[in-house]
Amino acid sequence: MSLERPQQPPESDDDPAAPAADDAGPLDADALRRALGDAALATEEHVHAPAVQIRPDAVQSSLSALRDGLGLDHLSCVTAQEYEDRYESVYHLKSYDDPTREASVVVPTPRSDPVSESAAPAFRTAEWHEREAYDLVGIRYEDHPDLRRILLPETWQGHPLGLDYDQTRPQVVRYDENANPLAEDGRADTNTMLLNIGPHHPATHGVMHLQVALDGEQVADVEPDIGYIHRCEEQMCQRGTYRHQIMPYPDRWDWGGGGLLNEWAYARTAEALADIDVPEYAQVLRTLAAELSRILSHMLAVGAYALDVIGDFTATFQYALRDRELVQNVLEDLTGQRLMFNYFRLGGVVWDLPEPREEFFEKVRAFVDGLPEKLREYRDLLTANEILQARTVDTGILPPEVAKDYGVTGPVARGSGIDYDLRRDDPYGYYDELDWAVAVEEDCDNFARLLVRLREVEESANIVAQCVDLLEGWPEDERTIQSNVPRTIKPDDDTEVYRAVEAAKGELGIYIRADGTDTPARFKIRGPSFSNLQALPEMAEGEYIPDLIAALGSLDTIMGEVDR
C-alpha cells in the first residue's frame, strides 16, 4: 500500500546521495596516515576499523581532511576515556554512502593537562558529544562553542567516569533561574520572552526541559536541557560481566518498545569483540523479534504524534495502542516479558519459539494480514487529514547536509532524503537474505518523517512474514538457538570495537574497550535520540510554538537513551 504526500514535492537542489570526493579506495591505517600527514602520530587496529592517533591540536583539520578526502562524512560517536597515564577522545567516523567504510581517530592527551582541540567546527554533532565527554570524564576542548556540563548540574563536583572520582562525596545542587539566552543580544526593536516547556510535560515525550526564547510568536532560540533521568548506564555496564550481567540493561534505554533492538546492539558489539558466531536459525529469530520491536516503537510514535499535533486521543492514539497491543502479545509469547524483554543472548537467543509453533505462527500471520487495512485507517486519520497536513507540511525543515552535520540517523535522516539504513548498508542478522525496501522521503519536513515511520511499519511486517515462512519450514534438527559460548568471556587486553544496529530511532552504537578481565574497561552507548535531538534548533528556529511541538514529536526521542 502506498502512502502519498498531499501535494507533489518541489524539485530539490540537494543531492543527499552525492558521492564524496575520493572515497573509493581501500580504507586502512596506512591510508588514514597518508591522508593526515604530520598530524598522525601512530596507527592502531580496532576490531571494527583501522585507527590512527593524532595530535590534540590537529583535530579540526584531521577530521575535515577525512571527511572531504576520504568521504567519512558521518561522525557517529565520540568516546572519552581515562587511562592510568593519559586521556583519550575517540572519534568514530563512517560514510553515509557506505557505513562499512569506518575509521577511528584517537586523540591522546596527558593526564596532567587533558585538553584537545574541539571537533565541533568540523562536525556540529561533536558539540553535544564533547560536552558529555567533559561532563562525565573531564576532558576539555579548546574552541568548543559552549563547553559546559550537559547531563549533570553545573555545580556538580568531579567527573563520574574518571578513575579518581569520589562517589561518597556529597553534592549540593543549587537552584538557579534560567536566563533568557537572547535578552542581551542587542537587536533593535526586538523584545524576546523566555518560555519554559517541561521538564514534566506531555509534549516533551519524557523528562526534558526546553528553554525557548520567543520573538513575538516565533521561536528565536531553543535549547534542549537534558540529564533529568541520567542513571550512568555506561558505568553500570562497566561493572557487569560480558556473558550474563550486561544484557538486561539495553532494554532500559528504550521503554517505548525498541528494547530488543537495543539488545541486538550489545550482542553485535560483544560478539565482534569476542569472535562469537551466531547460528543461522538464531539469526532469523533475532530478525523476527527485532522487526516486531520496531513496529511496537513506531506504533507508539505515530499515536503520540497524532496526540501532539491534532489532539487526536479518541481515534488515532487509541487505534495505535490497540494495534501495538497485538504486537505486545506476540512478543510476550516469544520472550515471556512485556517491557524488559531480555530475549537475546551472546551467540543467539535464550529459547526457541513457543509451543505449539503453529499457534504462534497463526497469531503473527493474523496481525500481518490485517495490517494493510489498518494502515489505510491511519492514512485516512493522519496523512489525509488537512489539519495535520497544515501543521506538518513544510514545517520542521531539516536539509540533508544539515542532518548529516548533526549525525542524524534513522527515520529522521530518511525523512531528509538520506538513504541510510544499517540493516541494508552494514548487514547483520538475516536482513541481506530477505526482500524488503528502505523507506525514504525527500521533503525534509515533519510530514516526511511521519510517512517514513508508517512505511517502515509496512516493511517491518513484510520482513516478519518472510521470517515466519522461513521458521515454519526450518528442519527440526537444525534449530540451533545459541552457539557454544564460553561461560566466562575475557577478551584480550586493550581490544577495542564499535558496532551499531538500526534501532527504531536510528543508529544505536556501542563502543567497548576490553582490559583482559570479564568486565569492560570502557562501555560507551551511542543513542540515536541524543544526536537527533541536538538538531531540534535547526528545525524549530523561525517557526511558531505549535511547529516546535510538531518538530519535537517528529524526532520520536526517548529520554532513556538520551540521558542514559
Automatic annotation (TrEMBL):
Gene3D superfamilies: Cytochrome-c3 Hydrogenase, chain B, NADH:ubiquinone oxidoreductase, 30kDa subunit
Catalysed reactions, as listed in the record: a quinone + NADH + 5 H(+)(in) = a quinol + NAD(+) + 4 H(+)(out)
InterPro entries tied to this protein: NADH_Q_OxRdtase_suD, NADH_quin_OxRdtase_su_C/D-like, NADH_UbQ_OxRdtase_30kDa_su, NADH_UbQ_OxRdtase_CS, NDH1_su_D/H, NiFe-Hase_large
PROSITE patterns in the cross-refs: COMPLEX1_30K
Domain NADH:ubiquinone oxidoreductase 30kDa subunit: 52-169
Comp. bias (Low complexity): 17-29
Location within or outside the cell: Cell membrane
Molecular functions (GO terms): NAD binding; NADH dehydrogenase (ubiquinone) activity; oxidoreductase activity, acting on NAD(P)H; quinone binding
Region (Disordered) location: 1-29
Location, primary (coarse class): membrane
Organism domain of life: Archaea
Alphabetical keyword list: Cell membrane, Membrane, Multifunctional enzyme, NAD, Transport
Membrane association type: Peripheral membrane protein
GO cellular component: plasma membrane
Annotated ranges, domain NADH-quinone oxidoreductase subunit D: 312-564
Pfam families cross-referenced by the UniProt entry: Complex1_30kDa (PF00329), Complex1_49kDa (PF00346)
Family: In the C-terminal section; belongs to the complex I 49 kDa subunit family.
Subunit structure: NDH-1 is composed of 13 different subunits. Subunits NuoB, CD, E, F, and G constitute the peripheral sector of the complex.
Name listed for the protein in its UniProt record: NADH-quinone oxidoreductase subunit C/D
